[in-house]
Amino acid sequence: MDRLVVRCVPAESKLSISFSLAGSYRHMLREQAEELGKALSRISKSAVKAQSKGKKSKKECKSEQTEVETVVRLYFNDEPVAESALNRDAWQDGAVLQVGDVKYKVERNPPTFTTAQLPASVLAGFPVCPKLEIEFGDLRFCLFKWYKESSPNAHAREEEDSWVEAGSDRVFTPSNSDIGLRLKLKCMPGNDSKLGLALDLVTSSAVEAGPGVCTFDARHFYTLKVTDESTTRVVTYNILADIYSQTELSRTVLYPYCAPYALELDYRQNLIKKELSGYNADIVCLQEVDKGVFGDSLAPALDAFGMDGVFKMKERQHEGLSTFYRRSKFRLLSRHDIMMSEALETDPIHSMLLEKLGSNPVLKAKVVQRSTTLQVSVLQSVSDPSKIVCVGNTHLYWHPKGANVRLIQMAVALKHLKKVVTEEHASTLIFCGDFNSTPSSGCFQLLSQCSIAEEHSDWASNGPEELLQMKLHSPFELISACGEPEYTNYVGGFNGCLDYIFIESQALQVEQVIPLPSHQEVTTYKALPSVSHPSDHIALVCDLKWN
């Protein structure tokens, strides 16, 4: 019996009917509140056209029409469905549509892939993670079968037995023996009761050789398994947005030492996905995430490795922040993202800071023009619901002379985080990000020592015109979980520690800090990024244990 698929969603006014008629695929949209008889009449007319196609005379077409219009009927439990029934009620799962001598079994809302894509670039030794979005189903119940070509271009030559089975997991990692071969994925959508129609996806290019040893390979030996319930592994990483890596400035001034192909997005995404998946983290905070990268690459890949993620685009920018969490360990309770300049001007909790900033219009104008964003996600432990974690993720103003702006931004961030922690009854705070601040900075002192004096040199970082002197206090007692590395950013003209994971030591203790790549690894290709490292920053990774 042939297959007919009906998609009927209560919130929509129309339903769709999809089936193959006389070798031609038909997709009809009908009103849900329309009577069945009208839909059957439309199918009958389609059948007439299909059968009369190619006939030369109108007389022949009319005679064909008389024959075909006799039987087009819908049955359910072997009983005809009344033509006065509404479409939304008539097209039930398991019903049978008869068109002439052909019968179709109705599948109402079967699991269906709405998006199914393979990445453009495939490297040996790097995971291939399909982008899959499903309707009326769950990716946990889908079936996967991977194939590779029996020989180079066997698929294009349409050779018999051109595909050889290679794996049955959602993610496939090709080996060096697969270089030069295309890959195929047969994926069948499913839910807890049935399977849908399988799709075949073929990579657009053959598997290419990978870069060999990467800077993160040795780090993965410390993170081979997901941690137990008492431990939380946290990652923070500025992954270098594509819009910044592809400029002429990047190629000729910032990263002239980096091979051009290693700055390409597809290449770097292969490395980033392998690096992140290998950390087996529970919480991952990323900065400089392109919107397309989040939706097309990172979210599908990390979903396959058991993580859900949220994304916050920076206003007037093309990149933003994303926070991922392991769904077997955490569930997302709430989000409290802000653009710091907007919060400064509109949230009463910042009124004193705003008033003080008003005494220096030049600095105030500079601060309010920034689109710097703070992403705040409140996570609840699955195993112990009493443990609620507030996760802050940010990327502060970048300019070398902008320490005064960063101090204002940090003051806003800390005030907002305290508000969220209090209102959400969070057990603790984990504050991650690229703070663009070294350990000698006022920002680091504010976080680690709870205050900075009004005489701190950072207030004068951009000269007397922007000087604003005020004492700042932090409402948290924080420590840098990964200490003070020599550097987390290493480019041709600069190296220094800019990235941090701050925690409250009364709630969490550091169990393990994953060693950073050696200086030799970082400088093998002079600086970062490189063919073996996808960003100009280095990820910080640590294991935290509840007290």
UniProtKB/TrEMBL annotation:
InterPro entries: CCR4/nocturin_mRNA_transcr, Endo/exonu/phosph_ase_sf, Endo/exonuclease/phosphatase, PDE12-like_N. Coiled coil: none annotated. GO terms for cellular component: mitochondrial matrix. Pfam families: Exo_endo_phos, PDE12-like_N. Residues 110-208 form the 2',5'-phosphodiesterase 12-like N-terminal domain. This is 2',5'-phosphodiesterase 12. It comes from the Eukaryota. Its cofactor is Mg(2+). Belongs to the CCR4/nocturin family. Its main location: mitochondrion. Keywords: Exonuclease, Hydrolase, Magnesium, Metal-binding, Mitochondrion, mRNA processing, Nuclease, Phosphoprotein, Transit peptide. GO terms for molecular function: metal ion binding; poly(A)-specific ribonuclease activity. GO terms for biological process: mRNA processing; nuclear-transcribed mRNA catabolic process, deadenylation-dependent decay. Residues 235-537 form the Endonuclease/exonuclease/phosphatase domain. It comes from Clarias magur (Asian catfish). It is found in: Mitochondrion matrix.
